[in-house]
Amino acid sequence: MTNHVASSIISSLLVVLILGGIQIMKAELAATRPGTLIAGILCSVIFVFVLTAVSNMQMASVGDGARAGLLEVVVCMLLAMIVAATVHRVSVTVCLLLCIFFAFILSTIAHTRYGVPLMQQTIVAKKKK
């Protein structure tokens, strides 16, 4: 049995730690090009952990059948982009691109792990008269 509450708490703690590190190092990250890229990467990691926390909270409260939908993904992405905007404008762009990439990767992993079946095609043959 998966412990969704513990996973949600750990993901939330990691978000707080990364967010605190970004805010402490904000001036150093904004000063250089590699720093702005690193800030965007860290904010996209925040997106993954926030989405994990939200999804696990849903699964703990509703049940194992709950899945994160488009609304949750967009809200988590906006939250990560707001954090990136506190550092630099370029960090927002890097964060957006990596969030889209990570959302695609997470979706692919979920489809292979949980095996969402594809609809079977039905072939209708014409009858001869």
UniProtKB/TrEMBL annotation:
Tell me the leader sequence span.
none
**Where is this protein primarily located?**
membrane
Where does this one sit in the cell? Membrane
Question: Can you list the GO cellular component terms from the UniProt entry?
Answer: membrane
Q: Does the keyword Transmembrane apply?
A: yes
Which UniProt keywords are present, listed alphabetically? Membrane, Transmembrane, Transmembrane helix
> Which InterPro entries does this entry report, sorted A to Z?
KRTCAP2
Name the protein family: Belongs to the KRTCAP2 family.
Organism this protein belongs to: Parascaris univalens
Q: What membrane topology was assigned to this protein in its record?
A: Multi-pass membrane protein
In its UniProt entry, what is this protein called? Dolichyl-diphosphooligosaccharide--protein glycosyltransferase subunit KCP2
Membrane spanning stretches: 6-25, 37-54, 66-85, 92-110
Q: Which domain of life is it from?
A: Eukaryota
